[in-house]
User: Fold this.
Amino acid sequence: MTISRNYHSLFYIGGVMLLAASLSLPPFFMVLSQAILIVNWIFEEKFKTRMQMIWGRKSLVLFLSIFLIHIIWLIPTRDFSFALNDLKIKLPLLILPLVLATSRRLRENEIKFILLSFCGGLIIHSFFSISRLTTITTVPMADFRDLSVFISHIRLSLLISLAIFSLFYLLITRTFQWQRILRNCLWVSLTWLVIYLLVLQSVTGIIVFIITGIFFILRFYNKIEQQYWYIKYPFVYGIAAAVLLVFAYSFVVMLSFSGKPPDEIYLKSHTEMGNPYIHDLNELQMENGNFIWINICEDELRHEWNRRSSIDFNGYDMNGHDIRYTLIRYLTSRGLDKDAVGVHQLSETDIINIERGMSNYIYQHNKWIYPRIYQIIWEIDNYRKGGNPSGHSVAQRFEYWKSAMDIIKDNILLGVGTGDVGLAWENHYAGSPSSLAPEWQLRAHNQFLTFLITFGITGFIIIISAIIAPFFMEKRHWDILPFVFIVIAILSMLTEDTLETQAGATFFAFFYSLFIFAHQKNEVNEVDGEGE
Assistant:
């Protein structure tokens, strides 16, 4: 019997470690690890004991109500195909807390290996990305989301943020005694993941990391012992420097969009070739402080562009946009007039950039985050001035959130039901004029709004309580890892439907169950030696 228990314990720890590593690896490993945990849990045959554990732990029952709410809200559902798929996606919210909370508590040393497995999976993922990095950094308008090989680049950036804080925790926690070479490996891994997060260029992930860092400093700064000054101060000053740099650059970029109205600047009447310019003073979009829709001579643009490029002026760039539009924006970003002389002054690299869909020359410096910051501010400014948000990730979210609020107003009390979310969005887009192109008419990209659409204010209150209350009921708000995870998870839900994908639901359910229900010890005690 003792041997049997040892085997069950081995499969349990092995399954948890594999699941932690698989969150950033191909989905097969995620499915395999959960299958190992479920089968092992069933064959332990402790059903009576586990039922007692469930009913005796109110925080667990409350968290499990998240899945129960999805079942109850099947009552008004018409689209059961959508509903069953949604329940399949949300299964980790039922399975993982049941398995982890009703198995034996994980000791601190076991948590260490689970976190190392998690970070190891991310480092393996990053190695797969290296082969793509050379190609991406040499292609002017390449998408850095391609660096995420197995999962969404936003989900990957959230995992990286959590891994960075996990490594930080392992370094400052006195429970763990690392030999010098192992400590150096942790430092190298932490540094590499920070670099990888920046290279990935996920603004969502970087902002989540910075905001989480601020909350962490406010919450735990005085609890990190002075002996860790070589970790404490670089971390604090690094976060502060990152915040200042982002705000400073954003402020400078925003100033470039606040120029004088186009009718107050010098508008040219004719090109050097004697052809008249046209000016659209009703369109106020800008690039690098220059108005786009002034000083345009389209005949000269067409002739000179067709002379220099194999892509016709009336054709499309490699991103599927009108190349005429891309060319005009690119010339504006260079401060050039939109005429033959302007096109003639472009270099061969500029021509290639435009053909590949680059609308501003600064995007060719795509190795750092500042072009992405500029792009976001441009999207917001363009949207504010009446531009079409289609294809622009940030501007589109404003449209999604407005549409979501309209759906919520019509279903404020009980929502549309578990299975009718897709129908609700289809009906909304069919019945309401939208500036979004059909291929960009997507869902809320905000988990809280999706909750409100699905369950109304009634179910929303229950689910939010089920997410937040166990964190305090289990007294985990004193602990570093649960605190960091909750902050990251909530921030991710503001801009993403975190629980509407299998990877997102597994990420949330796993770490919530691990840190809130399965971890045996209070982490603060190991950091500062004091209880609360």
In short: The CA atoms of residues 216 and 484 lie 7 Å apart. Residues 271-364 form one domain. Strands lie at 286-287, 290-291.
